[in-house]
Amino acid sequence: MEPFKSGVIAIVGRPNAGKSTLLNALLKEKIAIMSDKPNTTRNNIAGILSTDDTQFVFMDTPGIHKPQQELGRVLNKNAYIAMEDADVIGWIVDATQSFGSGDEFILNRIKDLGKPVILLMNKVDRLSKEALLKRLGYWAGQYDFTEIVPLSALKKENLEEVLAVFRQYLPEGPALYPAEMKSDHGLVFQLCELVREKILQKTHDEIPHSIAVLLESMEEKNGKVYLSFLVIVDRDSQKGILIGKGGDMIRDIRLSAQKEIKEKLGKPVNMELYVRTEKNWRNRESKIKEFGLDELSE
Asked: 0.85 exceeded by the pTM?
């Protein structure tokens, strides 16, 4: 009989490499929100997969990037701490993209940690076999990776191999979380993230980085859940865009979020969305902490 293993796997990579898509695919459940906007993930989110002989604790981290604001610095710090605390690092890269300065940035961090590093070559379904072999050879020359695993998170290809490889490098020991747990983040966090996901999906590039979502109130009456969310932006012009002409945009976001939250809770939902400007909040450490984006601070 195989010994029980459990451990933490930090999933790191450049923005948009597919970290959240992979996490959700491995867990067969939506744990992390997804959009095509860079830095969709802001918090270190543990996705917990328990099997008969293994507990995989995947840390979905913010995309590592050159920060432009204090918020970016905090997001990078969150990712670095996850890497330092992990038993294994899963570095996910977009197989269709060339090795760039962002990869160099991550590589320099990984080199100093002395941990097993599994290179996850994502989006291989978009390459011909010849192009994939060439790309694999190129990446193999960048660093002495413990293993290299090609996969497609979106099409859920080769995920069993990903788990088998990770298991090899996890320590023997008891489970870190109860078997029924799927995430270390509670319901309030998940609901706020669902609202933020809808904003990311429906607004243009000038909005996504500038928003934070807070749950102001939640109560249940006669089997119906009443929710009130506050959306923070850092400029008045963004508030106008988010509300939209005649309130069309905010209504569209509200209805889309309300539908998914209703499915998640399994109950009727009545939801309100309000928008407030907090000028330049992304450069204010106190606001970043207040909005729950620096969970790892002392």
From this structure: no
User: d(Cα 242, Cα 199) in Å, to the nearest integer?
Assistant: 8
Domains defined for the chain, CATH in brackets: 5-168 (3.40.50.300), 187-290 (3.30.300.20)
Q: What sections of the chain are H helices per DSSP?
A: 19-27, 70-85, 101-111, 129-140, 159-168, 187-202, 236-243, 248-265, 285-290
Predicted pLDDT of residue 88? 95
31, 67 Cβ separation under 8 angstroms: no
Q: Which residues are CB-neighbours of 78 under 8 A, at least 6 positions away?
A: 42, 43, 44, 61, 62, 294, 295, 296
What are the phi and psi torsion angles at 293 (to 5°)?
Answer: -100, -5
Integer Cα distance of 295 and 246 in angstroms:
37
* Tens digit of each residue's pLDDT (9 = 90 or more) over 176-219: 988 888 876 678 878 888 888 888 888 766 565 678 888 899 99
Cβ distance 89 to 110 under 8 Å? yes
240 burial (CB, 10 Å; 0-12 / 13-18 / 19+) is middle
Residue (of 84, 91, 37) closest to 210 by Cα position: 37
Question: HSE-up of 10 (CA within 13 Å, CB side)?
Answer: 26
Contacts of 217 (CB under 8 A, 6+ apart): 226, 227, 228
